[in-house]
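Workshop exercise sheet. Pairs work together: one partner reads the sequence aloud, the other fills in the structure field after running the prediction. Swap roles for the next sheet.
Pair: D.N. / O.F.
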Amino acid sequence: MPSCRQATTRIWASVTSRGVPRLAVAAGIVVLAVAAVTGSRPTADESTTRPDQVAVFMRAKLAHSQNVLEGLAIEDYDLIDKGAQELSLASEDASWQVLQTEDYARQSADFRRSCDSLRKAAKSHNLDGAALAWMEVTMKCVQCHKYVRDVRDEP
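Structure field:
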C-alpha cells in the first residue's frame, strides 16, 4: 500500500504533468491576490482599507496558511518555510493593520515571532517542531481574530 506522501506526490504530479508547474500555480495565485488588492484605490472620503480589500487580503493569508499545512502534510520544508515567510511579511503590510491599538500591535509581533519559530523548525527539517510551531501560529490567528471581533463589537 502506498504511503500518504506517495499518493499526494502522485496527485500533485498529475497536476503538474498537465503543463502547469507548481511554482507557476503559486505565482498565479499571488499575482491575482496582489492585483485584486491593488486594483482599486479608495477615494479621499473612504477609509484607507475598504472591507472588500480586507477580505481579499485575508484570502491571501489563507492561501499562505494552506501552503504551510500542505508542506507539513507532505514534509516539504521549503513550502513550510515559504508559507511562514509570506505570513510574516503579510503581517507587516498596511492591510494587516485593521486596528491601531497597543494590544493589536503586540499580537501582531507575537504572530511574527511564531512564524519565525515555524521557519526555524522548517529550516532544520524538524517536522514535529514545525507542526508544534504551526499550532502556535494558528492559535495566534484565532486569538487575534477574536480580539478584533470583540473590539469591533464594543458599544
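Discussion prompt: The chain is about 75% helix and 0% strand. What would you look at next?
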